[in-house]
């Protein structure tokens, strides 16, 4: 049998394979609530503009609410033959209210309808990402505040570089996640235009009021070009790109937690709540949540590249290719929200291992730069010469199997006769971090000021 929605020009129904490749209901049923909200706004507008009667609009409204409650209670029967959520809802509406259901689609097409539904769905995900990031930042701020004075090694090339504080390290992630949050905010503001009323591609001759439907659905304004409105998926691409960058940050942090929780580092204890054991090795405690967060970026990046590839080369306006947009965003959004929640839980629970961090901070000649700076400041030595003298002292310490503060003054004076007792003051990690008071530096006072600034910002 031919299709109820467009069967007029068709003598036969679709091949089974056609139906299988064409249908999107298996995934786009996630937009049911958005579809019904869009239809309610459209019907109310049609009545206000006298395109349908108030009575029909009221019947449609009540019918849509019934459909929604069937969907929410799980009694709704989805049909693959009806292809997508839009036609499933409309067909059920027709069963419930009869003839007025056929008037709902006046001045509208599935092309503007799907763009509207998908935008509403994605907009919620922008909001979820923003609040998920805010929660993560709050958890990091607590860690930073607790550990503002706690010294740890700072690394470059994963080799010990200079001492930093735990708080400073946590605050580096606060900055990264704050940029992520602002990317989601920017994109959300840009995407908030209503496609509804663009109809198939050219607009409509009915006297619709697009401002009214835009306002009813929480959009800032109707989109200004009907061709663009039905063919634009920038909002999905921007969500996916902001999600990819955010997931990249989460992945880098997760990698640090995996390293830090190892027996070789012992920098941090991840709570039992976010760890798993091994079925064969009784001693094992594995950082699975961190590893999975590290991995989620793979699917999220994949979704971004997938949708970019679908969209490239598509002529205006709607093409069915665009039906392949939703699963990418659904999967990326699910992955991102889960990763954000897991990271927030893990950060809230984790315990820095202070003795181990402080001890590690003092290894690897981490205060060598402080020594070179001291030679410049106290002896007036050019920095390049100071670098050379310090290098010789590091080599001496390494040969003797000690760290820099353990060299004697006499040993130091073989590299530079003018070095005096005071040099030892700058060689401790506490002195080193306390001296880094330049704006943005690791000094505990700076970290406290940044924690305060961000706490005020988050309120
Ligand atoms: N299921 C379709 C999608 O996701 C809805 C729009 C169909 N429009 C059309 N002209 N066939 O894109």
TrEMBL record:
Argininosuccinate lyase C-terminal domain sequence ranges: 365-434
Main location: cytoplasm
E.C. designation(s): 4.3.2.1
Keyword Transmembrane: no
Highest taxon, organism lineage: Bacteria
Catalytic activity reported: 2-(N(omega)-L-arginino)succinate = fumarate + L-arginine
MF-aspect GO terms: lyase activity
Subcellular location: Cytoplasm
Domain Fumarate lyase N-terminal, residue spans: 8-302
Membrane-spanning segments: none
Similarity remark: Belongs to the lyase 1 family. Argininosuccinate lyase subfamily.
Protein name: Argininosuccinate lyase
Annotated source species: Paramylibacter ulvae
């Amino acid at each position: 049998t031919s299709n109820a929605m467009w069967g007029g020009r068709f003598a036969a129904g679709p091949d089974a394979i056609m139906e299988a490749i064409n249908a999107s209901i298996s995934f786009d049923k996630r937009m049911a609530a958005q579809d019904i909200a869009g239809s309610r706004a459209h019907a109310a507008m049609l009545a206000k503009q006298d395109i349908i009667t108030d009575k029909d609009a009221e019947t449609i409204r009540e019918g849509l609410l019934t459909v929604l409650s069937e969907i929410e209670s799980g009694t709704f029967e989805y049909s693959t033959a009806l292809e997508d959520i839009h036609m499933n809802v409309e067909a059920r509406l027709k069963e419930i209210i009869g003839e007025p259901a056929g008037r709902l689609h006046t001045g509208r097409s599935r092309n503007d309808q799907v763009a509207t539904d998908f935008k509403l769905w994605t907009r919620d995900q922008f909001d979820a990402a923003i609040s998920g990031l805010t929660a993560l930042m709050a958890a990091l701020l607590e860690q930073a505040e607790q550990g503002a004075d706690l010294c740890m090694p700072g690394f470059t090339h994963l080799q010990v570089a200079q001492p930093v504080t735990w708080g400073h390290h946590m605050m580096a992630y606060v900055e990264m996640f704050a940029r992520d949050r602002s990317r989601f905010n920017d994109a959300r503001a840009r995407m908030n235009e209503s496609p509804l009323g663009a109809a198939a591609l050219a607009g409509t001759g009915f006297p619709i009021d697009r401002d009214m439907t835009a306002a009813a659905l929480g959009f800032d304004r109707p989109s200004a070009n009907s061709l663009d409105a039905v063919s634009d998926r920038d909002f999905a691409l921007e969500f996916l790109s902001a999600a990819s960058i955010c997931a990249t940050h989460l992945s880098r942090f997760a990698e640090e937690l995996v390293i830090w929780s190892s027996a070789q580092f012992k920098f941090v204890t991840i709570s039992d709540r976010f760890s798993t054991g091994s079925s064969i090795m009784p001693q094992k405690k594995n950082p699975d949540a961190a590893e999975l967060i590290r991995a989620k970026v793979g699917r999220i990046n994949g979704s971004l590249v997938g949708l970019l590839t679908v969209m490239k080369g598509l002529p205006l306006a709607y093409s069915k290719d665009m039906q392949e947009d939703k699963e990418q965003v659904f999967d990326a959004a699910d992955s991102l929200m889960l990763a954000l929640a897991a990271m927030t839980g893990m950060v809230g629970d984790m315990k820095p291992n202070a003795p181990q961090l402080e001890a590690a901070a003092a290894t690897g000649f981490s205060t060598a730069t402080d020594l070179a700076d001291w030679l410049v400041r106290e002896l007036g030595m050019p920095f390049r010469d100071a670098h050379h003298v310090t290098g010789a002292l590091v080599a001496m310490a390494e040969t003797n199997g000690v760290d820099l503060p353990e060299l004697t003054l006499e040993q130091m004076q073989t590299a530079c006769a003018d070095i005096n007792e005071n040099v030892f003051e700058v060689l401790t990690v506490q002195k080193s971090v306390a001296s880094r008071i330049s704006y943005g530096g690791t000094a505990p006072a700076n970290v406290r000021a940044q924690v305060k600034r961000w706490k005020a910002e988050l309120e």
